[in-house]
Amino acid sequence: MLRSFAAILATCLALSLDAQEATRDITGSLTYLTRIALPPDAEVSVAARGAFDTVLGEVRFDTDGNQVPLPFSLTVPDGLSGHVEALIHVGGAPRWIIRDILFDASDGPVDLGELELAPITPLAFATKYDCNGRRVTLGVLSDRAVLRVDGRDFAMQEAVSASGTRYAASDGSDTEFWSKGDTAMLTLEGQDMGQCVKAMPEPPLYRAGGNEPGWHVRIGADTVDLTADYGALSLTAPRPDVQVSPGAYFFDMPQLDARLTVKERLCYDAATGMPYPHTATLMLEDHNLKGCGGNPGKLLTSAEWHIDVIAGQGVIGDTEITIAFGPDMRISGYTGCNRFMGGYKLTCEGLRLGQLGVTMMACPEAQMAQERRVLDALDEVRRFDIEASGRLLLVGVAEDGPLMAAHRP
């Protein structure tokens, strides 16, 4: 029997009541380093956003002459992760900002502590780059080239280069940005930050699907495409607004007599074993179809991993070994001696790393031997997994243990 619209509405109301009861508070305070007093008309907005850019909670308030640090509190549903962003407006224009302060999917309150906002000064002719998860912008401010990294501005001047365009910081901070087409290399205060790529906006697309009986849902910017029964059923409808309940997002599609529910739980494809960030359930007429949703690459990207186990052995001494997966399908990292970079590919079968380029610095013998173990292990990677604790496992063909294990600090 097809579900009636009244039944759907009743379920939505019940979920809404549950969402009100199953919530938690996110608290913190906002500050900035610049010694500038806020005028009486300054306004503050703080928002928590989850999957699908959904606003999970938001608060706005006038400062009424109060100065930083400014405390805030907002309420979000239990069981969902996301990030917090905050703005301080002066005269109606944004003046200080902070983004991407992550919180996990637990059920308890979250105290973010004191958050340091960066000043907003628009750059002309700005080009944005992704440097292994770090946001970098190169633009013009007051007729000078400026490199903006993590809210800090470096005045740059063009330097001699054999190819591409190379900039060096004019303050002698050993900061360089060398762009070549759509890629660039960043050195930040003497530290090699690896390869950068021009930041491209993600397509507004989400996919969920299952193997039995062969279904998938594609959520685009304006429409939803639903395919079921191994392609025998194909339907399209306008994209509905996303709704939130504790631990889940859902899309009601009464025109298709369907509802898609997405939960923030690790899911494994039954056929390939590929991990996905979400479990998905499609209620289609009177059928309840199970599957996975989201992009597996999201489990790898957004932050650098610190490797602590290589082929069953720990790293030597206080050596730092890292690996970062970029959204552009590029990989970079540090072996404890040299930097490496290359490409990677996610397929239905797993994860493959392409040929890696490695710098040629000489190191003590023990570090060189460890580097060889790192590179050999990376060459054998065939899939990945995420433990319940959040640790990354890079796995080869053999099933006698992971080639590498890594964590995020």
Notes on the protein architecture:
The termini are far apart. With 409 residues, the protein is mostly beta strands. The strands form 6 sheets. Strands 28, 29, 30, 31, 32, 33, 34, 35, 36 and 37 form a 10-stranded antiparallel sheet that branches. A 9-stranded antiparallel sheet has the order 20-19-18-17-27-26-23-22-21, with helices on one face. Mean pLDDT is 89; it is low at 1-20. The chain is globular and about 70 Å long. β13 and β14 (176-180) form a beta hairpin. It is built from 2 helices and 37 strands.
Helix content: under 10%
Catalogue the unreliable spans: 1-20
Question: What average pLDDT do the residues reach?
Answer: 89
Q: For the CA atoms, what is the radius of gyration?
A: 24 Å
Structural class: mainly beta
| Strand portion | over 45%
Helices, by number, come to 2
Shape designation: globular
Topology:
Layout: H1 5-21, E1 23-31, E2 43-49, E3 55-62, E4 70-77, E5 82-90, E6 93-103, E7 110-116, E8 118-119, E9 124-131, E10 134-141, E11 144-149, E12 152-159, E13 165-169, E14 176-180, E15 183-188, E16 191-198, E17 206-210, E18 215-219, E19 223-228, E20 233-238, E21 243-245, E22 248-253, E23 258-263, E24 267-268, E25 275-276, E26 278-284, E27 287-293, E28 305-310, E29 313-314, E30 321-325, E31 330-334, E32 339-346, E33 351-353, E34 357-358, H2 365-380, E35 383-386, E36 392-395, E37 404-407
Summarize the structure.
The chain contains 2 helices and 37 strands. It is mainly β and 409 residues long. It is globular, with a radius of gyration of 24 Å.
